[in-house]
Amino acid sequence: MTSFWLALQFLTRLPTPAPGELDARQVGYSLAWYPLVGLLLGAILWGAALLLQGQDSLLGAAILLALWVALTGALHLDGLADSADAWVGGLGDRERTLAIMKDPASGPVGVTALVLLLLLKFTALAALLQRGELLALLVVAPLARSAVALLFVTTPYVRAGGLGEALANHAPQGAVLFGALALLPLLFWGVGGVAVPVLAAALLLSLWLRRRVMRRLGGFTGDIAGALLELLECAALLVIALTGPH
What we know:
globular, 12 helices, mainly alpha
């Protein structure tokens, strides 16, 4: 269970027991728990949405989005902002892109990316709350975290040192693939026929981002992984809101 607690500690701000001394293998195996951590987040958001039923949909969406950000500590939003700044400011150069990505400060491109993404998430949540499609909240978070785990087992990690390198070097490919496949019944149960366009959007977005980072960087970084997670959550919410029953 040490790997599970490590995944929960890294991906959320939920209280966890101290993991104690870790080896790289345990760090790598935490990837296998990413879908389950996403499911836990989704369950919390779903429960909050149930409590907000009957309230104004805009107010409910704002509360849900604030809770979502608080539960994750804005970790992945930080990755999105850093990636956006680096991609534009890097001007196509690998080393310049990596250097900007490492800078903790956010520039105007990163801030704009955050505002747009949060705005899209907010409006999608408002639409889902208004229509009572609350089960969608249960599946979006595990879907995005499964995609991040798959990124680690299919794409080179280019930043030496740190947690990301240990994750990439010791990722359990079979367990990650099993976790992603096990998520499919939940997805179809949660959003029904809309699951097909959601999966298509997630696959296309993942392949597009992977192709772009491979061309410029030869792989990905932790910030890129965070950006993928946020973009996938947003894309899934939008597809469900746009294609679900009205």
